[in-house]
Every structure is written in structure tokens, then in C-alpha cells.
Amino acid sequence: MSYVVNTLDNLIHQTAFFNLTVGNYIMIVVALFFLYLAIAKGFEPLLLVPIAFGMLLVNIYPDIIKPFGEGGEGGGLLYYFYILDEWAIFPSLIFMGVGAMTDFGPLIANPKSFLLGAAAQFGIFTAYFGAIWMGFNDKAAAAISIIGGADGPTSIFLAGKLGQSAIMGPIAVAAYSYMSLVPIIQPPIMKLLTTEKERQIKMEQLRPVSKLEKILFPIVVTVVVCLILPTTAPLVGMLMLGNLFRESGVVRQLQETASNALMYIVVILLGTSVGATTSAEAFLNMATIKIVILGLIAFAIGTAAGVLFGKLMCVLTGGKVNPLIGSAGVSAVPMAARVSQKVGAESDPTNFLLMHAMGPNVAGVIGTAVAAGTFMAIFGVF
Question: Which regions in the chain score pLDDT beneath 50?
Fold first, then answer.
């Protein structure tokens, strides 16, 4: 009889109900809310579903991301995925997939888009000084500030390179959350800073871009950027390699694999491992709250800076540039460009800004990677 009682007692106490804290239940509710946003509202489900499910798993079973023990015992399943985040493998593969999926033609056709992409990075450096003011050390501040580029892979990449593993989870979740919430966060800022007349500006059709230009672009960008900032090679190099797969026309199988199967596999593994870093103990603290606030401020300022620079270009070109495309200078590809199109179409349904916005959007991806490389150069990290 005692054997049966002991067995039942052990079984009951092995259930999660006896091991969860109030914080775990709070995080479970947050995970369910993220799943609701992804499934019911359609907010970037490819990102939010795996992140939210990883968050759910780790707060029910914390050992799923348990690291290797000192005694040599193995780590939890998602710990192995998380290591690939820290080693910058998953972020670099994501960039290759983005490059293989993206047409850089609008940026080549309108090189001035680089300026809009650069302007949108202003939020990153504003957040850097804000993070220092809030008490973070310089490397942590740099890792947090990249959230302003709305670029999850680069945020993870820089946090790992700067040795900020302790706050990588909150940084990654904040970055991916703001990427998902681009359609909610950006439009009010865009409408506040532009007039109805500016939003109705129709831009001239972009010039055709030759195949040779499209092939040379990723090669030239890789050589120039990586010679100046070699630390950007993992991100910029993979981004341009993926684009070269796309534009060369001779490796269609590689382009299809990088932009489809490989991309989606990496998104699953990266998303669940990022979500699994949000255990209640690691996530529910004042540092996380500060990171989330700083990330939102950085993203808002980056969006505003892009729009304001777009207004300046509008004036300098005699009204030929719609300021709305400046908001696409953040790195959320192609969500930010779609938002530019949507807000413009609300003012004039016949206005098509998507291709014009893709230029700053692609420039923002490169700009965020360059910003990360700049921080690494400042701190002597290779």
C-alpha cells in the first residue's frame, strides 16, 4: 500500500501545478495573448506563433532550456537551438533567406533611398544613450538600442557578440514583437508628422534596373561594406549571398531553398528558442521593462526620423518624394513597406507606394547591420 501511495505522490508532484510560480502563470497568459494576436489578428504569425509557443513551453517546463550541467549532464531541447542563436548562426541564415526573397531593384533604381534608410537608424543611437541614462552598461545599451531598427536577427546577433546573453531574451522578444506590431505602431506616427496633401503625393515610376546591375549590386555592397566594417560580414555577407542566388539566375535551387525551406526551418528553431528565453525568472524584472520601453522609444524615433527626412527630401525635390516612404527605413522587411503603401492608399486609393518604399526598407536592413558592426568596432569585438 505504501508503494502505491508513494508512487501516486511522486506522480502528482511531478506535474507542473506544484512547480509553477505566480510569475510562470503571468508569462503563460502573455504567451496565450501573443498566440491570440498571431492567430486571431494575423500579426506576423510566422514570428509570433513559434515565439509565443516557446514562451508557453518554458514557463510550464523550465528545464526545456536548461544549459549543460557542470557534471556533464545534457541540456534541454531548446538549449541546443539557443546556442545557435548565441553563435550568430540562425541570425545569419535568416539574413540569407531575406536576401533570397527580396528584390533590391527599387534601391538600385533610387539610390537616394539609402539616405532614408540611414535616417531611420537615428532611433538606434538615441536609444543607446537612453539605455546608458537608465543604468545599463555600454555594451548592454548597444545591444538594446538595435531594437530600434525593428530587426530581430540583428538584435540577437549583436547581443551574442557583445556577451549580453543575460538580456538576449528580452531584447529578442521586444525586437520581434515590434516587428510584428509595425502595422499598429507606425501609422499614428506617420499621420501625425505628415499632411493629407503630402500623403497623396504620387511618385514617378522607377526606372528599369538591368540584370547586370542586380548581379553587381550584392557583390559591390559586400566588398565595400565588409572592407570598411569586417564585423558585418556574417550579416551583410549572408544577405548579399542570398540576393546573388536570386539575381544570378544560375542557382535557382539554392535560391528556392534559402527563401523557402531553409528560411522556414530557421524561423521555427529561432522563434521557439527565443520564446524559451522568457522564463518568469529571467523576464519579469525591472531590466526587462526598461528594455521594452527603450525598444518602443527607439522604434518610434526611428520611424519619425525616416518620415521627417522624407519630408525634407520632398521639399528639396519640389514635392516629388512622398514622406511616407521614409517610415519604411526601419529594417522590418517587407512589413514597413506595406504599411507605407497602406497609409498612402488611405489618402488616395490610386497611389501605389510599395515599390518606392521597398528601397528605404532594404536600405534599412543594410543600415541596421552597419549600425551593429559600428558598435562592435567601437568595443573592439570581432
Answer: 70
pLDDT at 148: 82
The pLDDT tens digits of the residues spanning 65-91 come to: 888 764 556 778 888 898 888 888 999
pLDDT recorded at residue 182 = 86
Measure the CA–CA gap between 228 and 240, rounded to whole angstroms: 16
Cell of 35: 498566440
> CA-CA distance, 312 to 48, in Å (whole number)?
35
The residues near 39 (Cβ < 8 Å, ≥ 6 apart) are 45, 49
**Confidence (pLDDT) at 267:** 92
Residue position matching grid coordinates 545557435: 84
pLDDT score of 247: 96
Query: CA 51 to CA 47: how far, in whole Å?
Result: 6
